[in-house]
Amino acid sequence: QLAGIMGMYALMAGALGVPLMQQLVIPLYGLIFGDLDDEKSAKEEFQHLVLEVLGPQLGGVVLDGVPGYVTGTSLTARLGMPDLWFQTDDRERTGEDYWNTMTNEMLGPIWGLGRNVYRGYGVVRDGKGVARGVETMMPTFAKNLMKSWRYAQEGVVDMRGDTVVSAADVGFAGALKQALGFTPAVVAEQQDRNTEKKNMEKRMTSRRKALLNAYSGAVERRDEGGKTRALADIARFNAVPIHAPLAITPQAIRASLATRARLSGRAEHGVIIQNQRLNRLINDGMPPRVY
Length: 291
Prior knowledge:
With 291 residues, this protein is mostly helical. It contains 13 helices and four strands. Strands 1-4 form a two-stranded antiparallel ribbon. A two-stranded antiparallel ribbon has the order 2-3.
């Protein structure tokens, strides 16, 4: 019976819609078969493997399920149970971000409505458009209708005003799906690809920054062993082909050391204001010290 249930989930919602797939199976896959030098997450590795082995058509059926692939609709979350306890978030997050996300999930929909109102107010306040702010505030059914109209008129546009998916690619059928509460597959796929690219960039730049900080810290502490370990880690980082544009060269190390020294020299009680004139004006406007 369990095998039958899981099989039906896989058939209808795809492999990513099977219960515990994203929360247990794929993380174990990454733990056992993952490459520490590969910047893709376990989920991204799994998706790439399926598409490389089976091709885009059959791989799409396996990942998204038969109904979703045939109709061009993202149905994995609707027909399956990928989020058995907590909703998954593919964006690269800190531990604090994950904690806040879980807290919001546990507080329920009423809290979520209040949070959406606050977020929508922020959208309007930041000048990103009254309509987008109102859309953010709305409950789901109204939000879907507003999204549908926007998709039909201008396509999928991000908060900066850049086109993610054109109106022609969304089409009338895609806008209708969104009005009914279903995300068009072309939109979901592009958003997933964009998220994957940004996640990979963040992992690589964060790793590069950590390596430079490790070496600079060892230099400041006069830790020869730490310098040797940091240089070995830097060599491994540079050896990965995709890291070539971010390679840590001797010039980059020297620039990092010089920047750290310059910033440390300008820090006032642990705070750095880049513009020195602005720093003086802020200091002049501060109230007198109490202690």
